[in-house]
TrEMBL record:
Source organism per UniProt: Dorea formicigenerans ATCC 27755
Binding residues annotated for GTP, in chain numbering: D59, I60, R61, S62
Domain RapZ-like N-terminal: 1-158
Occurrences of domain RapZ C-terminal (ranges): 165-284
Name the record gives this protein: Uncharacterized protein
Signal sequence, renumbered to the chain: none
Keyword annotations from UniProtKB, A to Z: ATP-binding, GTP-binding, Nucleotide-binding
A family per Pfam: PapZ_C
GO molecular function: ATP binding; GTP binding
Keyword Iron-sulfur included in the entry's annotation: no
Length: 293
């Protein structure tokens, strides 16, 4: 029997995660009253039951009974019940944006309806669950398919999960440094394909641009040293409990050199299952848009 408690911040993707787990063969129950959780666990443990995999969605919507969760989990621990906690996290900026897009009110926002206040209160209430979580997934930069891939890795393939998700992000300095970048690298010292007429309309996703940028020792040495440093940092970030790492690689316009190096770093990092990794090109099409205006 495998019991997964799905929890975390409102707007971080709990409902989506439960639907994904259901598609993966888990019997899913959302917002089960907290006092009934031990009884549900007992039913799962009955020999011969058809439910051998279950997921429970638990969050602050449970109201006053949510405060009993710590004691309920203690009862499960003392009774020898095996369970795992999946905690979905996201940054306040992303959560506020999601709430504004859906025009929903945060359950703890209070009479003035300020989402920020609700999020602050929610983080206080969920603090003990976050510390107790077996899997901490930050969905701030995740696409739906990327979240599904991570859950599949944990709950279907049973691969080791290190609670770190890396975003390799290319950008253009003339459009500003990404506010959420943890590490920023400037590759404007490399030869610029923009000044080659036939390469100008292309991007770092095109092979001719990639060949032009990488066809020199400086670019190759930089990539080797950058990859080596990032691979050194990753286990140290993991040991410190970091769950989201955004690596920004910038050039002037975010179309040629930064895209090329971001792609190369992404290819080097994605060879392991020890953490999740994704690629994003923030400004790759902005030059064309700007010129059209």
């Amino acid at each position: 029997m495998r019991l997964v408690i799905v929890t975390g911040m409102s707007g971080a993707g709990k409902s989506t995660a439960l639907k994904m787990l259901e598609d993966m063969g888990y019997f899913c129950v959302d917002n089960l009253p907290v006092p009934l959780i031990p009884k549900f666990a007992e039913l799962l443990a009955v020999p011969g039951t058809e439910m051998n995999k279950a997921a429970l969605g638990v969050d602050i919507r449970s109201g006053q009974s949510f405060q009993e969760l710590a004691n309920v989990l203690k009862v499960l621990d003392e009774g020898g019940c095996q369970y795992e906690i999946l905690y979905l996290e996201s940054s306040d900026d992303v959560l506020v944006k999601r709430y504004k897009e859906t025009r929903r009110f945060h359950p703890l926002a209070g009479s003035d309806g300020r989402v920020e206040d609700g999020l602050k209160r929610e983080r206080e209430l969920l603090g003990f669950l976050k510390k107790k979580a077996d899997y901490l997934v930050d969905t701030s930069h995740m696409l739906t398919r990327e979240l599904k891939a991570e859950l599949n890795k944990i709950f279907v393939q049973n691969k080791e999960y290190k609670n770190l998700y890396i975003t390799v992000l290319s950008f253009g300095f003339k459009y500003g440094i990404p506010n959420d970048a943890d590490l920023v690298f400037d590759v404007r010292f490399l030869p610029n394909p923009y000044y080659i007429e036939e390469l100008r309309p292309m991007s770092g996703n095109d092979q001719p641009v990639r060949d032009y940028v990488m066809n020199n020792d400086t670019a190759k040495q930089f990539l080797t040293k950058l990859t080596d440093m990032v691979e050194f940092l990753i286990p140290n970030y993991i040991s410190e409990g970091k769950t989201q790492l955004v690596i920004g690689i910038g050039c002037t316009g975010g179309k040629h050199r930064s895209v090329t190096l971001a792609n190369e770093l992404y290819e080097a990092l994605k060879k392991t299952d020890s953490y999740g990794v994704r690629i994003e090109h923030r400004d790759i099409g902005k030059d064309a848009i700007t010129k059209a205006k």
